[in-house]
Amino acid sequence: MSTRDLVLTALFAAIIVALGLLPPISLGFIPVPITAQSLGVMMAGVVLGARRGAIAVLIVLLLVAIGLPVLSGGRGGLAIFASPTAGFLVGWIFGAFVTGYLSERLVNHGQSGLVQTVSFFLAAMIGGIVVLYAFGITYLATVAGLGFTKAFVGSMAFIPGDVIKAVVAALLGRAVMVGYPLLPARA
After folding, report:
1. What phi and psi values does residue 93 have, to the nearest 5 degrees?
2. Which residue ranges run through the membrane?
3. Nearest Cα to Cα of residue 180 among 62, 92, 48
4. Residue at 186 is within a domain
5. Among candidate residues 182, 179, 28, the one with its CA nearest the CA of residue 100
6. Is 184 domain-assigned?
7. CA distance 147 to 49
8. What's the CA angle centered on 71, arms 65 and 73, to 5 degrees?
9. How far is CA 14 from the centre of its chain?
10. CA 141, CA 81: separation in Å to the nearest integer?
11. 77 and 64 in contact (C-beta within 8 Å)?
């Protein structure tokens, strides 16, 4: 990994942590709060690509594991990984990877701005919502004893906000691609 890669992954880890400074919004009927940090996960995948995006998320989760209060609401420590929300945290890694993987394959410099933006949006939707929810809902249903259907239905309240986050990530991805393309070169 080059110095540039290290700096970029550390930068996006810091962005994800900074998004955690925004207070979480609890819905009350499901133990998972609405946070801005999933936007950081989508942005890491869209801007950095699969490998670097996943590494940025891993850095954040390592900071959580050693006890730093870097999650929304000032949460941190190993106990977080035993909570009902742990599946979403693990899903961050795979969500960033899939978002980045799809971004690397769907977006190229020869496309129009609209096609690039839509491609980034699709990548963020699939990686940052579908993949993330697959991990989070499955773990939540198992650990909280809600059952898959109840966990799934309860999680649907987060979809509108996550779609907005995917739009923001797509617009950011397009802006970065125009000004300073960071996505790894395709083979």
Report:
1. -60, -50
2. 10-30, 53-73, 78-98, 120-140, 152-172
3. 48
4. no
5. 182
6. no
7. 34
8. 130
9. 13
10. 15
11. yes
**CATH number of 131's domain:** 1.10.1760.20
pTM for this prediction: 0.91
Amino acid at the residue 116: Q
- pLDDT, residue 1, reads 81
Residue the block writes with tokens 């955690």: 20
| pLDDT tens digits for range 43-97 | 999 999 999 999 999 999 999 999 999 998 899 999 999 998 899 999 999 999 9
Question: Which of 123-161 are b and which e, b meaning 16 or more Cβ less than 10 Å from the residue's Cβ?
Answer: bbbbbbbebbbebbbebbbebbebeeebbeebbeebeee
Reported in sequence order, the residue ranges of 97-142 that DSSP labels E, i.e. its strands, are none
Classify residue 24 by its DSSP letter.
P
